[in-house]
Write a structure and sequence with these properties.
Radius of gyration: 24 Å
EC number: 3.2.1.52
Protein name: beta-N-acetylhexosaminidase
Bound molecules: ligand TNX
Distance between the termini: 35 Å
Number of strands: 18
Number of helices: 17
Catalytic activity: Hydrolysis of terminal non-reducing N-acetyl-D-hexosamine residues in N-acetyl-beta-D-hexosaminides
Organism: Microtetraspora malaysiensis
Low-confidence stretches: 193-200
Shape: globular
Helix content: 25-40%
CATH topology of the largest domain: TIM Barrel
CATH superfamily of the largest domain: Glycosidases
Number of domains: 2
Largest sheet: 9 strands, mixed
CATH architecture of the largest domain: Alpha-Beta Barrel
InterPro entries: Beta_hexosaminidase_sua/sub, GH, Glyco_hydro_20_cat, Hex-like_dom2, HEX_bac_N
Length: about 500
């Protein structure tokens, strides 16, 4: 009971233990039984009725979303949950209580599948416990995304924000606008440098995209594991890949674009005109159709260079027609227009903090303050839901130590301890502001994450600390490190090439 990650609200041990045997079955409502069997897939538990089953599930509507209670006796395990997510998390807790062998992909012979008796009462402090995966800068094949979902799920993280479009690549099939994937999904040169180094091109082409069926699969796979996929189409900046495919959507008529072959901020920008809105509406519709349900869609809004809007007589005239004073207001207006369009489809918009201009956005738009707490606080004060995403300490593309032994990172240094000490809703804020912070999300920008192995190294164990903070609500307690040390054995069994606490791997 004392080595769970994230730490449950309440856990107490009791004498004795419960043994899973080949015949152990689970009973209860199907929508609760299935998630538990999935979380404990390694045990291949059967489905049973109340008379035969030794793991019994009941629905308890008094328990809030994602909450569960788990009572382990010597003869039976009782689980109560209010929803499928709560049931799934009860299963994940049981999995952590089992020997680390429960984190392998199959049960190896000779393992004793025993858990100590006790009771857990658990529920999350924050509803948004996320990871952001940039699949634009370096494409990650579908199998890596599915594996990431498995890893999020075992840490009770529940949002996968997929950054599907940026200057360096568009990563989704489009039937309405096929040049997006045909042209926008690849570049001819691999980029091996970042801001503070000279570009060094190795001439190796890079590309890849998910089909709409892949996206549907990713969404369904995530949903079964209590993870919501939050797709992002970053506009109106970060749009070179879109413009390479459809230059007429750009702010500068006649300008030719290519999928960007360097990192950084590009001056290329979409025109904020009705034609662009129609184009994006069609893309959103394809995404919503593929995923089925899309409660949140991220529309970006970060790092926009608005010069081309001011240089265009047409865009200036449009802004005057709308009665807007500045390009910044037009930027917020454009994103609001997209958010309205999403609202008609039952989807809430999420934006990076540059899109937040007080009074311009829809109030139900979620703001991600990546530039720090001050802007997050202003957005919360203005009535927006806020998900904490500050560079420090939640940019996991930053390295953990300044050392030549470490793989190349964007910057340094963000340690596990930095993440564990993070407070998403600082005590110094007003209660109303704090109440609007619904969670946190760590960012894995992929300029320097070329593959799944590097992803493992960057994401874990800092992701474990983010899970701890987002589930428990506050900075981790000092004993977190001991729990984490044991938890890493689980990640070893799973096959995660995380960064060891003691320092870099020697390869
Ligand atoms: C800033 S954060 C960006 C990304 C980069 C990242 C690198 C944000 C909304 N924009 O485009 O990938 O820094 O750390």
């Amino acid at each position: 009971m004392d080595h769970l990650i994230p730490r449950p609200r309440l856990a107490e041990s009791a004498p004795g233990s419960f043994a899973f045997t080949p015949g152990t079955a689970v009973s209860g409502p199907t929508d609760l039984v299935d998630p538990v069997r999935l979380a404990l897939a390694v045990l291949d538990l059967g489905r049973g009725d109340d008379a035969s089953a030794r793991v019994r599930m009941t629905r308890d509507p008094a328990l809030g979303p994602e909450a569960y209670t788990l009572t382990i006796g010597e003869d039976e395990v009782l689980i109560a949950a209010g929803d499928a997510a709560g049931a799934f998390y009860a299963g994940q807790t049981l999995r952590q209580l089992l020997p680390v062998e429960a984190f392998r992909s199959v049960a190896l012979p000779g393992t004793e599948w025993r858990v100590s008796c006790g009771r857990v009462e658990d529920s999350p402090a924050f509803s948004w416990r996320g990871a952001h995966l940039d699949v634009s800068r370096n494409f990650l094949p579908k199998r890596e995304v599915l594996r990431m979902i498995d890893l999020l799920a075992l840490h009770k993280l529940n949002r996968l924000h997929l950054h599907l479009a940026d200057d360096q690549g568009w990563r989704l099939e489009s039937r309405a606008y096929p040049l997006l994937h045909e042209v926008g999904s690849h570049r001819t040169q691999t980029i091996t440098s970042f801001y503070h180094e000279e570009p060094t091109y190795d001439g190796v082409p890079h590309g890849g995209y998910y089909t709409l069926r892949d996206l549907a699969e990713i969404g369904a796979y995530a949903r079964a594991r209590a993870v919501t996929v939050v797709p992002e189409i970053d506009v109106p900046g970060h749009a070179s890949a879109i413009l390479a495919a459809y230059p007429s959507l750009g702010a500068t008529p006649g300008e030719r674009h290519h999928v960007l072959d360097r990192w950084g901020i590009s001056p290329a920008i979409l025109a904020p005109l009705p034609g662009t809105v129609d184009f994006l509406a069609a893309v959103f519709d394809e995404i919503i159709e593929a995923l089925g349900e899309v409660p949140y869609l991220h529309i970006g809004g970060d790092e926009c260079v608005l010069d081309a809007w001011e240089a265009s007589a047409e865009i200036r005239a449009y802004r005057a027609e709308l009665g807007l004073d500045s390009p910044g207001d037009l930027h917020a207006w454009f994103l609001r227009r997209l958010a309205d369009l999403l609202a008609e489809r039952g989807t809430r918009a999420v934006v990076w903090d540059e899109a937040f201009v007080s009074g311009m956005l829809r109030e139900d738009t979620i703001v991600m303050p990546w530039r720090g707490a001050a802007v997050g606080r202003r957005a919360a004060a203005a009535g927006h839901e806020v998900v904490a995403t500050p560079v420090f300490p939640l940019y996991f593309d930053y390295g953990e130590a300044a050392s030549a032994e470490e793989p190349l990172a964007i910057g340094e240094t963000i340690t596990v301890a930095d993440v564990a000490a993070f407070e998403p809703a600082p005590a110094t804020w007003a209660d109303a502001e704090r109440a609007r912070v619904t969670g946190l999300q760590f960012q894995l920008w992929s300029e320097r994450i070329p593959d799944g192995r590097t992803l493992d190294y960057r994401a874990w164990p800092r992701g474990c600390a983010a899970a701890e903070v987002s589930w428990t609500g506050g900075p981790a307690r000092p004993e977190f490190t001991e729990r984490l040390t044991r938890h890493l054995e689980r990640l070893d069994a799973f096959g995660v090439e995380y960064r060891p606490l003691a320092g870099p791997r020697p390869w």
